[in-house]
């Protein structure tokens, strides 16, 4: 779950960066708007976002679901930044007028959101809507049994966008009790992808293909031995041709992103966490397999050979990105989405204005597993949920669901991501092109400065849901990422698990506390990685995991989820 949060936060960081440079990308459209403020009137925004027919489809001609004005309080990460007091924001105004609501922001941060919401729930001070990742926590069970959160209506037809999403397998998994196909919904899941297969680009390795040519290796490595040899060459053979031994092989956004290399041994660890895999006729945690130990030994071999960044264990977010983009490292473990490629391209071309990112970088295919197959990461496309306070009456629940339905719609999505049609972007033949705008100083206009409410776009979904088609990212990068995705879908098997296992509830569930990244670092930095890893994992298996495995398998058998 923690790794999904990292991906989601990375997606939000991508969204921020995208909007920061929107005018630079939009310049290719040939449009120009040099108004100093660049802010249209609220009426312009409202006219461009007229209520859609579907929004009021459930109401009879004599009923207007938006007739009564309502205040809706929402707790969301950094929503205070999205709704600064006294700021004239036409997009916020348009959303509020369309739904006839006033949104009352209740700020939370990445550091305090869980604690704050637990305190509010215990003291009966919850806002109308709140965002948290609680689906597999004991909090949810107690909130439901104690009547803290509101059950969603069984009939979602008045909310067509929500109805479509709740019909998908990922959303269906959020029924409660977990794993019960007849259970009820108590939350609105927040997807990072609308298809679990899209996780194929959530993990991977990007490499300097020009460096590969410089060290005489033009074929992508297929085995771990070949990969280690390539990383050593990046360190020892002066790949940047500056006459100095000052380069690194592989660096990683954080230690957990090294997990992609486990695709060559234990694919169940590819996501930077341990999933349930088949072993000895039952479901077992991936970290406990002999294949996992072999993967740890291989990463230790990479480290001992000098092919892995010596600072991999302590590197901070963003530092590895800078190392790779600035030409200090030859390979980078992170995701291979267009957003990450765009971040690298921007940094690289700022430092090398006479060069093109696409000429120097490529996405590596995964390392072939020892069983002869390629594997790709596969997991739920969702991280975190929104809950409605049980104290909300039916009319308020209806309005909240209509708000979510609108933001999930194409019209709402475009408004909160690209601005106002005809002012900030144009749409022709289904394609969106941004309109070039400048601020008072003649610099590219930052849309999030113009419309802070855009920062709340992840109220409903993370930006990964549209990242493959987003016009804020150059087509060349979208094509690069899409080509990798298609290769994965055609050549790589998904991790051999059953996603339903993530949602099985059993008594000892909260005791599943393995820490992949911490444990991997300990093993790789030790003198004997195999001995260290086995000591750690055997400690888990001889402790709480003995009961965890028994209880999960008993529940899985009862539900017909057989290994």
Task: Describe the protein.
With 563 residues, the protein is of the alpha/beta class. Helices cover 39% and strands 13% of the residues. The chain has 22 helices and 17 strands. The strands form 6 sheets. A 5-stranded mixed β-sheet has the order 2-1-3-14-6. It has a 4-stranded mixed β-sheet with strand order 8-11-7-12. It has a two-stranded antiparallel sheet with strand order 4-5. Strand 15 and strand 16 form a beta hairpin. Helix 3 crosses helix 5. The protein is globular and about 75 Å long. The two termini are 22 Å apart.
Task: Name its key features.
563 residues, Bact_solute-bd_prot1, single chain, signal, alpha/beta
Provide the fold topology.
Elements: H1 2-20, H2 22-26, H3 42-48, E1 70-77, H4 79-82, H5 90-99, E2 101-108, H6 113-122, E3 129-132, H7 138-145, H8 160-166, H9 169-172, E4 175-176, E5 184-185, E6 188-191, E7 204-208, H10 209-214, H11 224-236, E8 248-252, E9 276-279, E10 282-285, H12 290-304, H13 319-325, E11 329-334, H14 338-351, H15 357-360, E12 361-363, E13 374-376, E14 382-388, H16 394-408, H17 410-418, E15 425-428, E16 431-434, H18 447-450, H19 475-491, E17 492-494, H20 516-525, H21 529-542, H22 544-559
Parallel strand pairs: 1-2, 1-3, 8-11, 13-17
Antiparallel strand pairs: 3-14, 4-5, 6-14, 7-11, 7-12, 9-10, 15-16
Helix pairs in contact: 3-5, 12-20, 12-21, 13-14, 14-19, 20-21
Region (Disordered): 33-65
InterPro entries: Bact_solute-bd_prot1 (IPR050490), SBP (IPR006059)
Keywords: Cell membrane, Lipoprotein, Membrane, Palmitate, Signal
């Amino acid at each position: 779950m923690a790794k999904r949060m990292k991906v989601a936060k990375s997606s939000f960081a991508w969204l921020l960066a995208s909007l920061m440079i929107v005018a630079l990308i939009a310049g290719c459209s040939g449009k120009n708007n040099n108004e100093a403020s660049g802010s249209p009137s609220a009426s312009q925004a409202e006219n461009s976002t007229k209520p859609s027919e579907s929004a009021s489809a459930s109401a009879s001609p004599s009923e207007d679901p938006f007739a009564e004005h309502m205040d809706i309080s929402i707790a969301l990460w950094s929503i205070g930044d999205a709704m600064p007091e006294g700021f004239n924001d036409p997009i916020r105004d348009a959303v509020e007028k369309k739904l006839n609501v006033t949104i009352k922001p209740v700020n939370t941060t990445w550091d305090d959101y869980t604690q704050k919401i637990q305190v509010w729930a215990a003291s009966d001070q919850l806002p109308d809507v709140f965002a948290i990742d609680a689906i597999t926590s004991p909090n949810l069970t107690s909130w439901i049994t104690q009547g803290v959160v509101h059950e969603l209506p069984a009939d979602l037809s008045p909310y067509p966008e929500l109805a479509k999403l709740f019909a998908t397998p990922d959303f269906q998994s959020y029924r409660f009790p977990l794993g019960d196909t007849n259970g009820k919904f108590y939350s609105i899941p927040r997807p990072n992808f609308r298809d679990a297969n899209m996780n194929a680009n959530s993990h991977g390795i990007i490499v300097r293909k020009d460096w590969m040519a410089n060290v005489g290796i033009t074929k992508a490595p297929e085995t771990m031995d070949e990969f280690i040899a390539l990383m050593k060459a990046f360190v020892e053979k002066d790949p940047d041709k500056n006459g100095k031994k000052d380069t690194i092989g592989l660096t990683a956004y954080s230690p957990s992103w090294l997990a992609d290399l486990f695709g060559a041994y234990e694919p169940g660890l590819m996501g930077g966490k341990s999933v349930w895999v088949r072993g000895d006729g039952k479901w077992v945690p991936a970290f406990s397999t002999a294949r996992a130990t072999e993967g740890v030994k291989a990463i230790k071999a990479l480290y001992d050979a000098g092919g892995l960044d010596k600072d991999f264990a302590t590197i901070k977010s963003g530092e590895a990105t800078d190392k790779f983009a600035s030409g200090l490292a030859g390979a980078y473990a992170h995701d291979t989405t267009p957003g990450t490629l765009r971040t690298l391209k921007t940094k690289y071309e700022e430092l090398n204005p006479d060069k093109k990112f696409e000429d120097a970088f490529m996405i590596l295919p995964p390392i072939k597993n020892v069983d002869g197959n390629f594997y790709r990461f596969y997991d739920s496309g969702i991280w975190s949920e929104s809950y409605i306070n049980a104290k909300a009456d039916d009319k308020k629940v209806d309005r909240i669901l209509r708000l979510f339905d609108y933001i999930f719609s194409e019209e709402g999505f475009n408004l909160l991501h690209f601005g106002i049609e005809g002012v900030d972007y144009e749409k022709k033949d289904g394609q969106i092109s941004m309109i070039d705008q400048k601020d008072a100083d003649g610099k590219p206009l930052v849309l999030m400065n113009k419309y802070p409410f855009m920062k709340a776009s992840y109220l409903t979904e993370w930006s990964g849901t549209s990242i493959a088609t987003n016009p804020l990212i150059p087509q060349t990068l979208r094509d690069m990422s899409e080509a990798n995705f298609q290769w994965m879908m055609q050549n790589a098997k998904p991790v051999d698990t059953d996603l339903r296992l993530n949602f099985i509830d059993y008594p000892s569930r909260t005791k599943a506390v393995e820490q992949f990244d911490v444990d991997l670092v300990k093993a790789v930095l030790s003198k004997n990685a195999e001995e260290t890893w086995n000591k750690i994992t055997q400690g888990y298996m001889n402790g709480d995991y003995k009961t965890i495995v028994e209880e999960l398998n008993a529940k899985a058998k009862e539900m017909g989820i057989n290994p």
